[in-house]
Design brief:
3-stranded mixed β-sheet, alpha+beta, 10-stranded antiparallel β-sheet, 324 residues, HIT family, subunit A
Length: 324
């Protein structure tokens, strides 16, 4: 029987519809190739550095770069202007899309993915994310920075080379505002600290854990094999987290993404890093969402905002730990 489960982070209901996974075509088992012009050099490969704008940050090892951060050549947000709203009519409101849009090239290996990073590469990648967020936070017009990784065409990737993006924006987006409200509703303790304790007690939705990080297929999963990466140390901002905890999150991501690939094959996914807005004191607990793109979002989900998960998170966690 299907169940409704409440996501306490957002206050939205999700539907866990066990049995629908048997419908033909519901699961996308393989990632489609990312389309790119093979005649053009990859701008993110070693030796092609001139094909992208000059680097904002470069992290080296043994005299060669291992991570680069460059401006996005086609930014969605650009400029230093503070948010200024213009009302053009009774329902026409606009503002300049000022902000920052950067590309994080997290491996020089064109054929790699986050699942292929060694411990050191995962750590320096997370350090780069933290460092860029610190830089963004110093700019008064930037209210929030969203770090993402789109892996595969179904997840929105336009280039095959492993990379992520950091977008510094002049407003707090609705998803983060909803999560902040979720933390405020959970009075008396931290929502995600309590989630760690509850999932440890339950035991059957944990995809990975060590002394610094827990990865769960959350009880309120809205999509199959969704995962939530939870640092055990409570920090509102990733920029305040201990370097060892930041590095541990990178390694945990590597491990569960490798298990996801081992279980389902090379599927597309999004990584979404959530931290409190700049200069917000909380309540919040920074975390990472892992969102595999193995089902389609149809009319019901788009019309209601109620996601339907056809693989129970308890079963998903079981599959991921068996692979591990």
């Amino acid at each position: 029987m299907s169940q409704l489960r409440l996501n306490p982070l957002t206050g939205r209901w999700v539907t866990v519809a066990v049995g629908r996974e048997d419908r033909p075509g519901d699961l996308i088992s393989q990632q489609l190739p990312v389309q790119a012009d093979p005649a053009l050099p990859c701008p993110f490969c070693r030796g092609n550095e001139e094909a992208s704008p000059p680097a904002l940050e470069t992290y080296d090892r043994h005299g060669e770069w291992v991570v680069r951060v460059v401006p996005n050549r086609y930014p969605a947000f650009d400029g230093d202007a503070p948010l200024k709203v213009h009302n053009l009519g009774p329902v026409f409101t606009q503002a300049a899309a000022s902000g920052i849009h950067e590309v994080l090239v997290f491996s020089p290996d064109h054929g790699a993915a986050w699942a292929d990073l060694d411990d050191a590469q995962a750590a320096v990648t997370m350090a780069a994310i933290r460092d860029r967020m610190e830089d963004h936070a110093r700019r008064p017009q930037i209210r929030y920075t969203q770090a993402i990784v789109n892996h595969g065409r179904e997840a929105g990737a336009s280039l095959e080379h492993p990379h992520g993006q950091l977008l510094g924006i002049p407003f707090v987006p609705g998803e983060i505002a909803e999560e902040e409200a979720g933390f405020r509703r959970f009075e008396g303790s931290c929502l995600l600290c309590t989630t760690i304790e509850a999932e440890e007690a339950a035991g059957h939705r944990i995809a990975y854990e060590d002394e610094r990080v827990m990865v769960v297929c959350p009880y309120w999963s809205g999509t199959p094999y969704e995962m939530l990466v939870l640092p055990r140390a409570h920090e509102v901002h990733v920029t305040d987290a201990a370097p060892a905890d930041v590095a541990a999150v990178g390694r945990a991501l590597r491990t569960v993404l490798a298990r996801l690939r081992g279980s389902l094959g090379s599927v597309s996914y999004n990584l979404v890093f959530h931290t409190a807005p700049h200069r917000h004191a909380g309540p919040f607990h920074w975390h990472v969402h892992v969102l595999p793109r193995i089902t389609s979002v149809a009319g019901f989900e788009q019309g209601t905002g109620v996601m339907i998960d056809i693989v129970a998170p308890e079963l998903a966690a079981q599959h991921l730990t068996v692979v591990g």
